[in-house]
Amino acid sequence: MHMRLKQHFHELPIRKKLQMIILLSSSLVLILTSIAFVILDMIIFHMNLIDEISSIARFVGNHNIAALDFEDRRAANQSLAIFVYMPYVKYAYIYDHNQKIFAEYHRQDLKPLTPYPAPNKNGFSFTQDGLIVFQSIQSYNTLIGIVMIQVGFEHLFPWLVGYICIVGIIMFLAFAITKLIASYFAQRISEPILQLTDTARSISKLKDYSIRACNLCSNDETAILINGFNTMLGEIQKRDKELADYREHLEAQVAERTDELASSRDLLQLIMDTLPAPIYYKDLHQRFMGCNKAFQRWTGMSIMDIEGKTSFDVWPLEYAELFHKIECSLFKDKSFVEYETQIPKKDGTWVNVIIYYTAFNLKTNCPLRGIVGAILDMSEVKRVQEQLRHAKEDAEAANRAKSEFLANMSHEIRTPLNAVLGFSELLGSLLTNPKEKRYIEAIQSSGKNLLMLINDILDLSKIEAGKLELNHEPIRIRNIISDIPQVFSLKLEEKKLHFILEMDDTLPHTLIADEIRLRQVLINLVGNAVKFTHTGHIRLAVKKCKEVPENKTIDIMITVEDTGIGIDPTALNYIFDAFRQQDGQSTKKYGGTGLGLSITKRLIEMMNGKIYVESQLNVGSRFDIYIPAISYTDIPNETVLKEEVIIEKNMIFEPATILVVDDIDHNRQLIKEYLQNMPIQVIEAAEGEQAIFLTKNHKPNLILMDIRMPGMDGYATTRMIKNDIELNPIPIIALTASAMTHDKEQILQMGFDGFLSKPLKRIEFLKELSNYLKHSLQSHESQADAASRVANTSQTESHHSEYNISERLLLSDRLEHECLNQWQEAKESGFFDQIASFAQVLKELGQHYHESVLVDYGETLFFHANQFDIKQMNIQLNNFPKLIQTLKPSDDYLESRHEYPTAIEP
């Protein structure tokens, strides 16, 4: 039924559809509106009825207050008799305060209610056939009774019927008027659409697109539809005309397009033939559609032999099956494939190739049309790769050889230097002849210069190998900068150069950096400036460039400027290269190895900084160092000396046995000399097997083990000793002539308890021994007190010990003629090692001649040199001439003693 109605509605003319829609819509609105009005009237009627009955109940209750007070039932019943004139009241009751019937009324046609309804104080309720209202009766705010009235709805039926009839008449009239209006407007709306339909029917029948529909409307949607329809007819008419014209020239256009397509294909084929790599393309059936000349040369087949064939007709079977499998996966995944293999050429040679496959279609989102393949000959690439691999292996081998050479060079040079410097130090303390002392000092000075050169080369090698690491710790940047002029004070005074020091006041007090390497950089640059400047000034400036407070970092710029000989512009490109110096620079005059600037540049780069240089010949040079993102801290760097300087005369070792394992006799003899006059027994071994034997028999307290020995080396010997449970607790110190970082790391990892680098220094040697052998320290005067006492001492006779005046004069002569020259050289060089050696010489002289003041002075100077305390070290150096005068016997003293010196050999 529903489907038939739906089909019938679709078959109706548009005018009937519009009328039906309007009538249905209007009728629905009328019905809903009438229902709403009826419901609203019924609600209002009920509310009015409730109000009316409630008012009557209140009236009855107020009228019967006296009757209830005096229990006059007769009066109460008479008051209810008024409901005879209200036929719609069915029942009326008055309850006393005990909720019992006090008076009652019921319509004559009704029987009394059984049982009586339960009284309620106030309220109402609807029943199936009427309304019940309860109203309380109060006297002086006291409940004395309740009135109940029940009314029926029978009298409302005639009114309800009349009301419905009136509503029905109104709806009928409204429906009739709506139908008339709907018919009128449906005709007005459908008329242009029907006319448009007739026009379309005529055009479809006659195929005449020049017919146009008439616009009977003004500007509504129907007019837009008709105008759009007419425009469409005009476009169709225009297209028909163009199509007719196009048909007339179709053959000419097809021929022209065919020629263009052929030209494009020829151009594509020409491009493919020009490419050296073999290229081909196939259809969906994996048949060759075409290829270039390179593919034909590769296979030895012509294009006529290839087109229409498959891989099985071109390649060997095993490769044809592989290519067939890859091409099938391409059609499935529509992806790109790169495959490396070997395929034969026409001459039978097998070639390493990479084959690139890709699926293609003529237009986007269209089905696949085939695949394209390209073959890349990798023979030359493989050959180059093989050459690069060999070159890399050769470079790595060269690098290993270089590292081994540096390690061997370090060992082979530092090993004899160990004996040269060690025995010359011991011999220097025994000699008294000035000429012999000068020879020994020349040997020591040359040896130390050679050691410094080796250290520079090793520093450069460590940087190149990435083995040099920076040790960042809190440093006082102002103290470091302020110490630099003190290092070169003698040279500056000798050349009469003016040193300008500029420091930014906003620089933080404490930075986080490597103090030793930063000093090394500054000393290298300022040292070069002093060396190459003869007149004018040298300026050292430090300023803050940028600060990031949230990260606590700053960027700083350090400038070293001089008015020296300058640098040739052509030399600026290589002055930072290792072992390179400016052309024309007199090596004899200025000296140097060409490593200073190279090491400086690489250290700055390790700090993530950059160095810039500007220079002009005979005007001067300027080096700018920019170091970014240096961390700083607000905590001051208060350096606390945790260890007392070890001085052999104050250290008393307890009896012990030491095993010295070294294949070089001079090295073993040097250690025995260092331990002379000490309660330490030294046993010797020249090779590993002997060392193991002596260790098992003597159970030494400490073993000093050389690393490189013929036969069983130090590593293997140490490993065997440490693997023995009984010998394992014996500490073993490695003696190494290598200064490479990775060697020291390997030493500690191989089970050694410590290490000493050759050449050995006596102080460092004894300090290392004190970590493993029991010892005690004599109480002695503090270094600060000794320094103060030496600096402020007066020329009194109490400083002279009771020994022969000739020896005293000999000491004074040696201090003036030998040590004064050494003092001048040490002060001018500013090298800490040279100053420490000079201090050691003074201390040994004081011990030999029993002059405690000289011993204290040497110990204090040695202490400050080892602690890199430039300020105190320079103070001590400047006091040396005063010390000589203090130790020199006065003429009065000589006269009083009546002792005169004998002739002293110059």
Q: Treating each run of at least 4 consecutive H or I residues as one helix, how many helices?
A: 28
Determine the fraction of residues in helical runs and give it as a percent range: 40-55%
Query: What's the N-to-C terminus distance?
Result: 148 Å
Q: What is the 3D form? A: elongated
Instruction: State the secondary-structure class.
Output: alpha+beta
For this entry, what is the oligomeric state of its chains? single chain
Unreliable stretches covering 5 or more consecutive residues:
586-593, 637-648, 779-803, 896-906
Number of strands: 24
Largest sheet: 7 strands, mixed
Strand content: 15-25%
The value of Rg in angstroms is 60 Å
User: What value does the average pLDDT take?
Assistant: 76
Q: What secondary-structure arrangement, pairings included, does this model have?
A:
Blueprint: H1 2-11, H2 14-63, H3 65-70, H4 73-80, E1 89-96, E2 101-106, E3 123-126, E4 130-139, E5 142-152, H5 157-206, H6 221-274, E6 279-283, E7 288-291, H7 293-299, H8 303-306, H9 317-333, E8 336-344, E9 350-360, E10 370-377, H10 379-430, H11 434-465, E11 473-476, H12 477-487, H13 489-495, E12 498-503, E13 510-513, H14 515-532, E14 537-548, E15 553-562, H15 587-590, H16 596-606, E16 610-616, E17 620-633, E18 651-653, E19 656-661, H17 665-674, E20 680-685, H18 688-698, E21 702-706, H19 714-723, E22 732-736, H20 741-749, E23 754-757, H21 762-769, E24 775-777, H22 783-792, H23 805-829, H24 832-848, H25 852-866, H26 870-878, H27 880-887, H28 891-897
Parallel strand pairs: 12-14, 19-20, 19-21, 21-22, 22-23
Antiparallel strand pairs: 1-2, 1-5, 3-4, 4-5, 6-7, 6-10, 8-9, 9-10, 11-13, 13-17, 14-15, 15-17, 16-17, 18-24
Helix pairs in contact: 2-5, 10-11, 10-17, 10-24, 11-16, 12-14, 14-16, 18-19, 22-25, 23-24, 23-27, 24-25, 25-26
